[in-house]
Amino acid sequence: MIEIKVQKELLSGTGSMTLDMDLQVETGSLIAVYGQSGAGKTSLLRILAGLMIADAGYIKVDDLVWFDSSSKVYLPAQKRRIGFVPQQYALFPNLTVKGNLEYALNKGQSTSKVDELLELMELANLQQQKPGSLSGGQQQRVALARAIIRQPSILLLDEPLSALDDEMRFSLQDYILKIHQEFNLTSFIVSHDLAEIYKMADKVLVIDNGTVTSFGAPEEVFANKQISGKYRFTGTVVNIVPSDEVYIISVLVDRNLIKVIATKDEASQLQKGNKVMVVSKAFNPLIIKLEA
Amino acid sequence: MEWGPIILTFKLALLTTVVLLLIAIPLTHWLAFTKSKIKPLVETVVSLPLVLPPTVLGFYLLLAFSGSTVVGSFLSNTLGLHLIFTFSGLVVASVLYSLPFMVHPIQSGLQNLPSEIREVSLTLGKSKFETLIRILLPSIKPSLLTGIVLTFAHTIGEFGVVLMIGGNIPGETRVASIAIYDEVEALNYGNANNYALILFALTFTILLAVYLINGKHLKGLVR
Protein backbone atom coordinates (compact mmCIF):
# COMPACT_ATOMS: atom_id res chain seq x y z
CA MET A 1 0.00 0.00 0.00
CA ILE A 2 1.26 3.44 -0.93
CA GLU A 3 -0.17 6.29 1.06
CA ILE A 4 0.20 9.76 -0.33
CA LYS A 5 -1.02 12.84 1.47
CA VAL A 6 0.83 15.94 0.40
CA GLN A 7 0.35 19.65 0.04
CA LYS A 8 2.55 21.89 -2.01
CA GLU A 9 2.28 25.49 -3.11
CA LEU A 10 3.11 25.65 -6.80
CA LEU A 11 3.85 28.61 -9.00
CA SER A 12 2.27 28.18 -12.38
CA GLY A 13 1.88 30.42 -15.39
CA THR A 14 -1.43 31.73 -14.17
CA GLY A 15 -0.38 32.42 -10.61
CA SER A 16 -0.06 30.17 -7.62
CA MET A 17 -1.89 26.90 -7.10
CA THR A 18 -2.04 24.45 -4.25
CA LEU A 19 -1.36 20.84 -4.99
CA ASP A 20 -3.42 18.90 -2.47
CA MET A 21 -3.31 15.12 -2.82
CA ASP A 22 -4.73 12.47 -0.58
CA LEU A 23 -4.83 8.97 -1.97
CA GLN A 24 -3.98 5.38 -1.30
CA VAL A 25 -2.67 3.16 -4.01
CA GLU A 26 -2.52 -0.61 -3.90
CA THR A 27 0.90 -2.10 -4.44
CA GLY A 28 1.23 -3.60 -7.89
CA SER A 29 -1.40 -1.46 -9.58
CA LEU A 30 -0.94 0.68 -12.64
CA ILE A 31 -2.28 4.18 -12.15
CA ALA A 32 -2.92 6.56 -15.02
CA VAL A 33 -2.61 10.22 -14.06
CA TYR A 34 -4.95 12.30 -16.16
CA GLY A 35 -5.65 16.02 -16.29
CA GLN A 36 -5.09 19.23 -18.18
CA SER A 37 -1.62 20.60 -18.54
CA GLY A 38 -0.67 22.61 -15.50
CA ALA A 39 -3.03 20.59 -13.28
CA GLY A 40 -0.13 19.27 -11.21
CA LYS A 41 0.49 15.84 -12.74
CA THR A 42 4.21 16.24 -13.23
CA SER A 43 4.57 17.87 -9.81
CA LEU A 44 2.94 14.83 -8.18
CA LEU A 45 5.46 12.57 -9.93
CA ARG A 46 8.35 14.79 -8.94
CA ILE A 47 7.23 14.83 -5.32
CA LEU A 48 7.04 11.02 -5.34
CA ALA A 49 10.49 10.84 -6.95
CA GLY A 50 12.04 13.13 -4.34
CA LEU A 51 12.92 15.77 -6.91
CA MET A 52 10.49 18.24 -5.33
CA ILE A 53 9.80 18.64 -1.63
CA ALA A 54 6.20 18.90 -0.49
CA ASP A 55 5.35 21.62 2.03
CA ALA A 56 3.40 19.29 4.27
CA GLY A 57 2.08 15.75 4.52
CA TYR A 58 3.55 12.29 4.20
CA ILE A 59 4.40 9.55 1.72
CA LYS A 60 4.48 5.98 2.94
CA VAL A 61 5.45 3.08 0.73
CA ASP A 62 4.73 -0.34 2.22
CA ASP A 63 5.07 1.11 5.74
CA LEU A 64 8.39 2.71 4.86
CA VAL A 65 8.22 6.46 5.38
CA TRP A 66 9.67 8.37 2.43
CA PHE A 67 8.49 11.73 3.56
CA ASP A 68 6.81 13.06 6.67
CA SER A 69 6.77 16.76 7.36
CA SER A 70 5.62 16.31 10.97
CA SER A 71 8.61 14.16 11.94
CA LYS A 72 10.95 15.85 9.45
CA VAL A 73 11.66 12.66 7.54
CA TYR A 74 12.83 13.21 4.00
CA LEU A 75 14.33 10.44 1.96
CA PRO A 76 16.31 11.99 -0.91
CA ALA A 77 15.76 10.80 -4.48
CA GLN A 78 18.91 8.68 -4.33
CA LYS A 79 17.54 6.57 -1.49
CA ARG A 80 14.05 6.00 -2.85
CA ARG A 81 13.37 2.87 -4.82
CA ILE A 82 12.01 4.59 -7.89
CA GLY A 83 12.39 4.40 -11.62
CA PHE A 84 11.81 7.78 -13.20
CA VAL A 85 11.29 8.37 -16.92
CA PRO A 86 10.83 12.06 -17.74
CA GLN A 87 9.00 13.28 -20.80
CA GLN A 88 12.13 13.81 -22.85
CA TYR A 89 13.72 10.47 -21.89
CA ALA A 90 16.90 12.24 -20.72
CA LEU A 91 19.34 9.61 -21.85
CA PHE A 92 22.94 10.37 -20.99
CA PRO A 93 24.32 11.63 -24.32
CA ASN A 94 27.92 10.74 -23.56
CA LEU A 95 27.24 7.06 -22.91
CA THR A 96 26.21 4.21 -25.20
CA VAL A 97 22.90 2.38 -24.75
CA LYS A 98 24.68 -0.24 -22.69
CA GLY A 99 26.61 2.48 -20.85
CA ASN A 100 23.34 4.18 -19.91
CA LEU A 101 22.10 0.96 -18.34
CA GLU A 102 25.41 0.14 -16.66
CA TYR A 103 25.53 3.59 -15.11
CA ALA A 104 22.28 2.81 -13.30
CA LEU A 105 23.68 -0.29 -11.57
CA ASN A 106 24.06 -0.11 -7.82
CA LYS A 107 27.55 -0.62 -6.42
CA GLY A 108 28.28 -4.33 -6.52
CA GLN A 109 25.14 -5.20 -8.47
CA SER A 110 25.70 -7.90 -11.06
CA THR A 111 25.90 -6.72 -14.66
CA SER A 112 23.68 -9.61 -15.72
CA LYS A 113 20.74 -7.29 -15.01
CA VAL A 114 21.91 -5.07 -17.89
CA ASP A 115 21.97 -7.98 -20.32
CA GLU A 116 18.60 -9.20 -19.09
CA LEU A 117 16.99 -5.83 -19.78
CA LEU A 118 18.76 -5.35 -23.12
CA GLU A 119 17.23 -8.68 -24.08
CA LEU A 120 13.78 -7.98 -22.66
CA MET A 121 13.49 -4.56 -24.31
CA GLU A 122 14.99 -5.87 -27.54
CA LEU A 123 17.90 -3.47 -27.43
CA ALA A 124 20.76 -5.95 -27.70
CA ASN A 125 21.67 -5.02 -31.26
CA LEU A 126 21.69 -1.30 -30.39
CA GLN A 127 23.77 -1.57 -27.24
CA GLN A 128 26.92 0.07 -28.63
CA GLN A 129 25.08 3.05 -30.13
CA LYS A 130 24.89 6.52 -28.65
CA PRO A 131 21.39 7.88 -27.82
CA GLY A 132 21.65 10.57 -30.50
CA SER A 133 21.41 7.98 -33.26
CA LEU A 134 18.28 6.24 -31.92
CA SER A 135 14.64 6.78 -32.90
CA GLY A 136 12.14 8.11 -30.35
CA GLY A 137 10.75 4.67 -29.61
CA GLN A 138 14.19 3.17 -29.18
CA GLN A 139 15.22 5.98 -26.84
CA GLN A 140 12.07 5.43 -24.82
CA ARG A 141 12.87 1.72 -24.46
CA VAL A 142 16.37 2.59 -23.24
CA ALA A 143 14.93 5.05 -20.74
CA LEU A 144 12.49 2.41 -19.49
CA ALA A 145 15.17 -0.24 -19.20
CA ARG A 146 17.46 2.17 -17.37
CA ALA A 147 14.72 3.01 -14.89
CA ILE A 148 14.25 -0.67 -14.07
CA ILE A 149 17.89 -1.69 -13.51
CA ARG A 150 17.87 -0.95 -9.79
CA GLN A 151 14.66 -2.89 -9.34
CA PRO A 152 12.53 -0.05 -8.07
CA SER A 153 9.24 -0.55 -6.31
CA ILE A 154 7.60 2.42 -8.03
CA LEU A 155 7.86 3.35 -11.70
CA LEU A 156 7.07 6.94 -12.63
CA LEU A 157 6.44 7.72 -16.30
CA ASP A 158 5.75 11.30 -17.35
CA GLU A 159 3.82 11.20 -20.63
CA PRO A 160 6.10 8.49 -21.87
CA LEU A 161 4.42 8.01 -25.23
CA SER A 162 3.19 11.45 -26.21
CA ALA A 163 5.99 12.11 -28.69
CA LEU A 164 5.61 8.83 -30.56
CA ASP A 165 3.52 7.85 -33.55
CA ASP A 166 0.62 5.43 -33.07
CA GLU A 167 2.38 2.26 -34.09
CA MET A 168 5.25 2.98 -31.75
CA ARG A 169 2.80 3.87 -28.97
CA PHE A 170 1.01 0.55 -29.17
CA SER A 171 4.17 -1.47 -29.08
CA LEU A 172 5.58 0.59 -26.20
CA GLN A 173 2.38 0.23 -24.23
CA ASP A 174 3.02 -3.49 -24.40
CA TYR A 175 6.61 -3.04 -23.26
CA ILE A 176 5.44 -0.98 -20.31
CA LEU A 177 2.80 -3.54 -19.35
CA LYS A 178 5.41 -6.27 -19.66
CA ILE A 179 7.88 -4.68 -17.27
CA HIS A 180 5.10 -3.55 -14.96
CA GLN A 181 4.06 -7.17 -14.49
CA GLU A 182 7.44 -8.82 -14.75
CA PHE A 183 9.05 -6.67 -12.07
CA ASN A 184 6.02 -6.38 -9.85
CA LEU A 185 5.95 -2.61 -9.97
CA THR A 186 3.51 -0.01 -8.85
CA SER A 187 3.40 2.36 -11.80
CA PHE A 188 2.20 5.90 -12.29
CA ILE A 189 1.76 6.96 -15.91
CA VAL A 190 0.83 10.47 -16.93
CA SER A 191 -1.33 10.14 -20.03
CA HIS A 192 -3.77 12.20 -22.08
CA ASP A 193 -4.85 9.33 -24.23
CA LEU A 194 -8.10 7.67 -23.18
CA ALA A 195 -7.48 4.60 -25.30
CA GLU A 196 -4.13 4.20 -23.64
CA ILE A 197 -5.65 4.58 -20.19
CA TYR A 198 -8.36 2.02 -20.92
CA LYS A 199 -5.82 -0.42 -22.24
CA MET A 200 -3.23 -0.10 -19.50
CA ALA A 201 -4.50 1.34 -16.27
CA ASP A 202 -6.12 -0.41 -13.32
CA LYS A 203 -7.16 2.96 -12.00
CA VAL A 204 -7.16 6.49 -13.26
CA LEU A 205 -6.38 9.49 -11.11
CA VAL A 206 -7.99 12.64 -12.45
CA ILE A 207 -6.34 15.84 -11.28
CA ASP A 208 -7.74 19.28 -11.81
CA ASN A 209 -6.17 22.45 -10.52
CA GLY A 210 -4.04 20.58 -8.01
CA THR A 211 -6.73 18.40 -6.47
CA VAL A 212 -8.03 14.91 -7.12
CA THR A 213 -11.44 15.10 -8.78
CA SER A 214 -11.89 11.37 -9.19
CA PHE A 215 -9.97 8.18 -8.64
CA GLY A 216 -11.20 4.78 -9.79
CA ALA A 217 -11.41 2.32 -12.62
CA PRO A 218 -11.32 4.06 -16.03
CA GLU A 219 -14.84 2.93 -16.94
CA GLU A 220 -16.26 4.32 -13.71
CA VAL A 221 -14.39 7.57 -13.99
CA PHE A 222 -14.93 8.43 -17.62
CA ALA A 223 -18.50 7.29 -18.15
CA ASN A 224 -21.09 8.51 -15.69
CA LYS A 225 -22.94 5.26 -15.62
CA GLN A 226 -22.09 1.66 -16.20
CA ILE A 227 -22.69 0.77 -19.79
CA SER A 228 -23.51 -2.64 -21.07
CA GLY A 229 -22.73 -3.18 -24.68
CA LYS A 230 -20.85 -5.63 -26.70
CA TYR A 231 -18.39 -3.27 -28.38
CA ARG A 232 -16.88 -0.19 -26.90
CA PHE A 233 -14.36 2.19 -28.39
CA THR A 234 -13.05 5.54 -27.35
CA GLY A 235 -12.14 8.09 -29.94
CA THR A 236 -12.14 11.70 -31.00
CA VAL A 237 -14.86 13.54 -32.88
CA VAL A 238 -13.33 14.81 -36.10
CA ASN A 239 -16.43 15.95 -37.99
CA ILE A 240 -20.16 16.60 -37.50
CA VAL A 241 -22.31 16.81 -40.63
CA PRO A 242 -26.09 17.37 -40.66
CA SER A 243 -27.98 15.04 -42.96
CA ASP A 244 -31.76 15.48 -43.17
CA GLU A 245 -33.14 14.99 -39.67
CA VAL A 246 -30.01 13.37 -38.22
CA TYR A 247 -26.34 14.12 -37.89
CA ILE A 248 -23.42 12.05 -39.09
CA ILE A 249 -20.59 12.12 -36.62
CA SER A 250 -17.13 11.01 -37.73
CA VAL A 251 -15.12 9.54 -34.89
CA LEU A 252 -11.45 8.66 -35.09
CA VAL A 253 -10.83 5.46 -33.13
CA ASP A 254 -7.15 4.63 -33.17
CA ARG A 255 -6.63 5.09 -36.89
CA ASN A 256 -10.06 4.08 -38.08
CA LEU A 257 -12.68 6.62 -38.98
CA ILE A 258 -16.10 5.48 -37.80
CA LYS A 259 -19.32 7.19 -38.90
CA VAL A 260 -22.06 7.27 -36.32
CA ILE A 261 -25.58 8.59 -36.69
CA ALA A 262 -26.76 10.87 -33.93
CA THR A 263 -29.95 12.78 -33.22
CA LYS A 264 -30.01 16.52 -33.15
CA ASP A 265 -30.01 16.52 -29.34
CA GLU A 266 -27.04 14.20 -29.14
CA ALA A 267 -25.15 16.11 -31.78
CA SER A 268 -25.73 19.43 -30.05
CA GLN A 269 -23.66 18.20 -27.09
CA LEU A 270 -20.70 17.36 -29.27
CA GLN A 271 -17.98 19.40 -30.83
CA LYS A 272 -15.00 18.57 -32.97
CA GLY A 273 -12.18 17.36 -30.77
CA ASN A 274 -14.44 15.93 -28.02
CA LYS A 275 -13.37 12.61 -26.60
CA VAL A 276 -16.25 10.17 -26.97
CA MET A 277 -17.06 6.54 -26.41
CA VAL A 278 -18.77 4.63 -29.21
CA VAL A 279 -20.84 1.74 -27.96
CA SER A 280 -22.44 -0.77 -30.25
CA LYS A 281 -25.65 -2.14 -28.79
CA ALA A 282 -27.48 -4.55 -31.02
CA PHE A 283 -27.44 -2.88 -34.42
CA ASN A 284 -27.89 0.70 -33.34
CA PRO A 285 -24.73 2.33 -32.16
CA LEU A 286 -25.21 4.79 -29.30
CA ILE A 287 -22.92 7.68 -28.81
CA ILE A 288 -22.16 8.98 -25.36
CA LYS A 289 -19.98 11.93 -24.60
CA LEU A 290 -17.23 11.25 -22.11
CA GLU A 291 -16.71 13.50 -19.17
CA ALA A 292 -13.41 13.67 -17.42
CA MET B 1 65.40 38.65 -29.06
CA GLU B 2 65.27 36.34 -26.05
CA TRP B 3 62.97 33.34 -25.69
CA GLY B 4 62.57 33.93 -21.93
CA PRO B 5 59.48 36.16 -22.13
CA ILE B 6 57.76 33.79 -24.58
CA ILE B 7 58.39 30.77 -22.37
CA LEU B 8 57.29 32.71 -19.29
CA THR B 9 54.10 33.73 -21.07
CA PHE B 10 53.19 30.15 -21.85
CA LYS B 11 54.11 28.97 -18.36
CA LEU B 12 51.79 31.62 -16.94
CA ALA B 13 48.99 30.77 -19.35
CA LEU B 14 49.26 27.06 -18.67
CA LEU B 15 49.28 27.43 -14.88
CA THR B 16 46.44 29.94 -14.96
CA THR B 17 44.36 27.61 -17.11
CA VAL B 18 44.90 24.59 -14.86
CA VAL B 19 44.14 26.52 -11.68
CA LEU B 20 41.08 28.17 -13.23
CA LEU B 21 39.69 24.88 -14.49
CA LEU B 22 39.87 23.46 -10.97
CA ILE B 23 38.14 26.54 -9.55
CA ALA B 24 35.61 26.94 -12.35
CA ILE B 25 34.15 23.42 -12.30
CA PRO B 26 32.71 23.58 -8.77
CA LEU B 27 31.87 27.26 -9.20
CA THR B 28 29.96 26.77 -12.45
CA HIS B 29 28.19 23.71 -11.07
CA TRP B 30 26.95 25.87 -8.22
CA LEU B 31 26.05 28.78 -10.51
CA ALA B 32 24.24 26.60 -13.02
CA PHE B 33 21.92 24.91 -10.52
CA THR B 34 21.63 27.13 -7.48
CA LYS B 35 18.48 28.99 -6.54
CA SER B 36 20.39 31.12 -4.05
CA LYS B 37 19.64 34.80 -3.88
CA ILE B 38 23.31 35.75 -4.01
CA LYS B 39 23.76 34.16 -7.45
CA PRO B 40 23.43 37.50 -9.33
CA LEU B 41 26.06 38.99 -7.05
CA VAL B 42 28.50 36.17 -7.69
CA GLU B 43 27.82 36.35 -11.43
CA THR B 44 28.53 40.07 -11.38
CA VAL B 45 31.84 39.59 -9.62
CA VAL B 46 32.82 36.84 -12.07
CA SER B 47 32.00 39.05 -15.05
CA LEU B 48 33.65 42.24 -13.75
CA PRO B 49 37.01 41.60 -15.47
CA LEU B 50 35.18 41.73 -18.82
CA VAL B 51 34.34 45.40 -18.39
CA LEU B 52 36.78 46.83 -15.86
CA PRO B 53 40.00 48.28 -17.21
CA PRO B 54 42.76 45.82 -16.29
CA THR B 55 44.52 48.65 -14.51
CA VAL B 56 41.64 48.92 -12.02
CA LEU B 57 41.87 45.25 -11.12
CA GLY B 58 45.66 45.53 -11.05
CA PHE B 59 45.56 48.59 -8.83
CA TYR B 60 43.33 46.98 -6.21
CA LEU B 61 45.28 43.75 -6.30
CA LEU B 62 48.43 45.77 -5.81
CA LEU B 63 46.89 47.38 -2.74
CA ALA B 64 45.56 44.06 -1.46
CA PHE B 65 48.86 42.24 -1.88
CA SER B 66 51.03 44.98 -0.39
CA GLY B 67 52.25 44.51 3.16
CA SER B 68 50.49 47.63 4.34
CA THR B 69 46.99 46.11 4.19
CA VAL B 70 45.43 43.44 6.39
CA VAL B 71 45.09 41.02 3.49
CA GLY B 72 48.58 41.65 2.25
CA SER B 73 50.27 41.29 5.61
CA PHE B 74 48.28 38.10 6.28
CA LEU B 75 49.41 36.68 2.94
CA SER B 76 53.05 37.52 3.39
CA ASN B 77 53.49 37.10 7.16
CA THR B 78 51.22 34.14 7.87
CA LEU B 79 51.17 32.25 4.59
CA GLY B 80 54.58 33.36 3.37
CA LEU B 81 53.10 34.39 0.02
CA HIS B 82 54.79 37.35 -1.62
CA LEU B 83 52.56 38.30 -4.50
CA ILE B 84 53.88 41.64 -5.63
CA PHE B 85 56.40 41.59 -8.45
CA THR B 86 56.54 37.80 -8.32
CA PHE B 87 55.43 35.06 -10.68
CA SER B 88 52.95 33.62 -8.15
CA GLY B 89 51.38 37.06 -7.91
CA LEU B 90 50.93 37.02 -11.68
CA VAL B 91 49.20 33.65 -11.51
CA VAL B 92 46.75 34.86 -8.86
CA ALA B 93 46.00 38.03 -10.81
CA SER B 94 45.59 36.15 -14.09
CA VAL B 95 43.21 33.68 -12.51
CA LEU B 96 40.98 36.54 -11.38
CA TYR B 97 41.34 38.38 -14.65
CA SER B 98 40.47 35.37 -16.83
CA LEU B 99 37.71 34.06 -14.57
CA PRO B 100 34.79 34.93 -16.91
CA PHE B 101 36.50 33.35 -19.90
CA MET B 102 36.54 29.99 -18.15
CA VAL B 103 33.28 30.28 -16.21
CA HIS B 104 30.93 31.53 -18.92
CA PRO B 105 31.34 28.73 -21.49
CA ILE B 106 31.20 25.97 -18.86
CA GLN B 107 28.23 27.52 -17.09
CA SER B 108 26.22 27.88 -20.29
CA GLY B 109 27.20 24.35 -21.31
CA LEU B 110 25.82 23.01 -18.04
CA GLN B 111 22.68 25.12 -18.21
CA ASN B 112 21.94 24.04 -21.76
CA LEU B 113 21.85 20.39 -20.80
CA PRO B 114 18.27 19.26 -20.14
CA SER B 115 17.72 19.39 -16.36
CA GLU B 116 16.10 15.95 -16.50
CA ILE B 117 19.49 14.40 -17.21
CA ARG B 118 20.69 15.48 -13.80
CA GLU B 119 17.47 14.48 -12.11
CA VAL B 120 17.41 11.02 -13.63
CA SER B 121 20.95 10.46 -12.43
CA LEU B 122 19.85 11.35 -8.88
CA THR B 123 16.92 8.93 -9.08
CA LEU B 124 19.42 6.27 -10.12
CA GLY B 125 21.06 6.67 -6.72
CA LYS B 126 24.04 8.71 -7.87
CA SER B 127 25.43 11.65 -5.92
CA LYS B 128 25.63 15.14 -7.38
CA PHE B 129 29.40 14.81 -7.57
CA GLU B 130 29.27 11.51 -9.42
CA THR B 131 26.66 12.96 -11.78
CA LEU B 132 28.93 15.91 -12.50
CA ILE B 133 32.02 13.83 -13.16
CA ARG B 134 30.50 10.92 -15.07
CA ILE B 135 27.62 12.57 -16.95
CA LEU B 136 27.58 16.36 -17.01
CA LEU B 137 31.22 17.18 -17.74
CA PRO B 138 31.66 14.50 -20.42
CA SER B 139 28.49 15.83 -22.08
CA ILE B 140 29.84 19.36 -22.42
CA LYS B 141 33.31 18.67 -23.84
CA PRO B 142 33.02 21.46 -26.46
CA SER B 143 32.25 23.99 -23.71
CA LEU B 144 35.17 22.77 -21.61
CA LEU B 145 37.49 23.04 -24.59
CA THR B 146 36.23 26.55 -25.35
CA GLY B 147 36.76 27.63 -21.73
CA ILE B 148 40.27 26.18 -21.59
CA VAL B 149 41.39 27.73 -24.84
CA LEU B 150 39.83 31.14 -24.28
CA THR B 151 41.48 31.30 -20.87
CA PHE B 152 44.82 30.24 -22.26
CA ALA B 153 44.66 32.71 -25.15
CA HIS B 154 43.36 35.52 -22.99
CA THR B 155 46.16 35.05 -20.46
CA ILE B 156 48.70 35.22 -23.27
CA GLY B 157 47.21 38.57 -24.27
CA GLU B 158 47.25 40.01 -20.77
CA PHE B 159 49.04 43.30 -20.30
CA GLY B 160 47.58 45.83 -17.88
CA VAL B 161 47.17 43.58 -14.87
CA VAL B 162 50.61 42.08 -15.37
CA LEU B 163 52.21 45.47 -15.59
CA MET B 164 50.53 46.68 -12.38
CA ILE B 165 51.22 43.57 -10.32
CA GLY B 166 54.35 42.11 -11.82
CA GLY B 167 56.26 44.97 -13.32
CA ASN B 168 59.00 44.06 -15.74
CA ILE B 169 61.44 41.70 -14.06
CA PRO B 170 63.26 39.44 -16.56
CA GLY B 171 62.71 35.76 -15.87
CA GLU B 172 60.12 36.49 -13.18
CA THR B 173 57.37 38.73 -14.49
CA ARG B 174 58.55 39.89 -17.89
CA VAL B 175 56.04 38.18 -20.17
CA ALA B 176 55.96 38.65 -23.93
CA SER B 177 53.35 41.42 -23.99
CA ILE B 178 55.46 43.46 -21.57
CA ALA B 179 58.61 42.71 -23.55
CA ILE B 180 56.96 44.10 -26.69
CA TYR B 181 56.06 47.31 -24.89
CA ASP B 182 59.59 47.53 -23.53
CA GLU B 183 61.21 47.04 -26.91
CA VAL B 184 58.96 49.61 -28.55
CA GLU B 185 59.80 52.12 -25.87
CA ALA B 186 63.47 51.49 -26.59
CA LEU B 187 62.69 51.90 -30.31
CA ASN B 188 63.78 48.30 -31.05
CA TYR B 189 60.98 47.72 -33.54
CA GLY B 190 62.63 44.63 -34.97
CA ASN B 191 62.65 42.83 -31.62
CA ALA B 192 59.14 43.99 -30.85
CA ASN B 193 57.99 42.60 -34.17
CA ASN B 194 59.59 39.23 -33.43
CA TYR B 195 57.68 38.86 -30.16
CA ALA B 196 54.49 40.19 -31.69
CA LEU B 197 54.66 37.88 -34.68
CA ILE B 198 55.23 34.81 -32.53
CA LEU B 199 52.27 35.69 -30.27
CA PHE B 200 50.09 36.40 -33.26
CA ALA B 201 50.94 33.14 -35.03
CA LEU B 202 50.54 30.98 -31.93
CA THR B 203 47.23 32.40 -30.76
CA PHE B 204 45.85 32.30 -34.30
CA THR B 205 46.79 28.64 -34.59
CA ILE B 206 45.30 27.76 -31.21
CA LEU B 207 41.98 29.45 -31.91
CA LEU B 208 41.75 27.98 -35.40
CA ALA B 209 42.38 24.52 -33.98
CA VAL B 210 39.56 24.99 -31.47
CA TYR B 211 37.04 26.02 -34.07
CA LEU B 212 38.03 23.11 -36.27
CA ILE B 213 37.79 20.60 -33.43
CA ASN B 214 34.55 22.00 -32.00
CA GLY B 215 32.99 22.02 -35.44
CA LYS B 216 33.74 18.35 -35.83
CA HIS B 217 32.66 17.59 -32.31
CA LEU B 218 29.29 19.19 -32.87
CA LYS B 219 28.82 17.23 -36.07
CA GLY B 220 29.64 14.09 -34.11
CA LEU B 221 26.90 14.88 -31.62
CA VAL B 222 24.28 15.41 -34.26
CA ARG B 223 25.12 12.32 -36.27
Q: Report the helical percentage of chain A.
A: 25-40%
Secondary-structure arrangement, i.e. CATH architecture of chain B: Orthogonal Bundle
| Count of strand segments of chain B | 0
Write down the CATH class of the largest domain in chain A.
Answer: Alpha Beta
Give me a quick take on this structure:
Chain A has 292 residues and is an alpha+beta fold.
Please give a structural write-up:
The complex is a heterodimer of chains A (292) and B (223). Chain A is α+β, with helices and mostly antiparallel strands and 292 residues long. Chain A has 8 helices and 16 strands. Chain A has helices at residues 41-49, 97-104, 112-120, 136-148, 166-182, 194-200, 218-222, 264-268; strands at 2-12, 15-25, 30-34, 56-61, 64-68, 73-74, 82-85, 154-157, 186-190, 203-208, 211-216, 231-243, 246-253, 256-262, 275-281, 284-289. In chain A, the strands form 3 sheets. In chain A, strands 7-8-9-3-10-11 form a 6-stranded mixed beta sheet, sandwiched between helices. In chain A, strand 15 (275-281) and strand 16 (284-289) form a beta hairpin. Chain A is globular and about 70 Å long. The model of chain A has no long low-confidence stretch (mean pLDDT 87). Chain B is mainly alpha-helical and 223 residues long. Chain B has one domain: MetI-like fold (Orthogonal Bundle), CATH 1.10.3720. Helix content of chain B is 80%, strand content 0%. Chain B has helices at 4-33, 39-51, 54-65, 70-78, 87-112, 115-123, 128-139, 141-156, 160-166, 176-185, 189-222. In chain B, helix 1 crosses helix 10 and helix 5 (87-112) packs antiparallel against helix 9 (160-166). Chain B is globular. At the A-B interface, strand 7 of A face helix 6 and helix 7 of B.
